[in-house]
Amino acid sequence: MPWTTIREHAVLSLPDLDLVGDIKYDRRQHALMLVDPTTGEEEVLTLSLLASGFVADPGQVFVKEWSEHTGLAAALVAVQICHRIETVNIGPNGVTAYRLQVVDEVTGNDASEAPRPRHDTAFDEQVVAAAMRLALVDSSVVGERTDEESVVNEPVPHGNDDDFPDLPPKLGKWTLETCSQCQPVQFCKSELLFNPDVGLNRVYYCLDHGLVSIDKVLDQLR
Fold this sequence. Notes:
Blueprint: E1 4-13, E2 18-26, E3 31-35, E4 42-44, E5 60-64, H1 72-78, E6 82-90, E7 95-102, H2 108-113, H3 121-136, H4 150-153, E8 158-159, H5 169-172, E9 178-179, E10 186-187, E11 189-195, E12 199-206, E13 210-218
Antiparallel strand pairs: 1-2, 2-3, 3-4, 5-7, 6-7, 8-11, 9-10, 11-12, 12-13
Helix pairs in contact: 1-3
């Protein structure tokens, strides 16, 4: 079965760099691939765990959580290409990998009948961090980060409305957002995310399915 493009111009925000390209999926191989839109260079993002006794069900893939792919699974969830099914430990050292469901492979019935995964706090935090980096990064200048690129490399102040007491009341108002991928539908979490270069944004995210939406609150301040 040929590779199928499931997302064009995707930005996958890892802790140390951003991967940009088209995401292709092969159902038969249970594999995802990133294709550089400029050079055509291909990078397989997934791996087989058959030798470790883990079998990918239809629509599922495995992504490792070590070496150059640390944070990749969370990045895929943050942009809603996949959602996490479970965390698995493999090998004698118990290294971590994630079983993910490709979102485009989930039908309405499948989504409602599938059991909700047990929360993995460390993974949830990675998804939120990836979503916040995406709220700040300019897709036209993504790539490997340097120490000077504080917008995407250093911790960014964020919090709730109480952390911004000088915010004008009108701008402090916000709405409830829901995640339509959750069954039943769940309310999103939200945080205010500030950086002088891009202003103040409210980021709405789902712990299971990543970034949902971003609202501009104030424009850049310098």
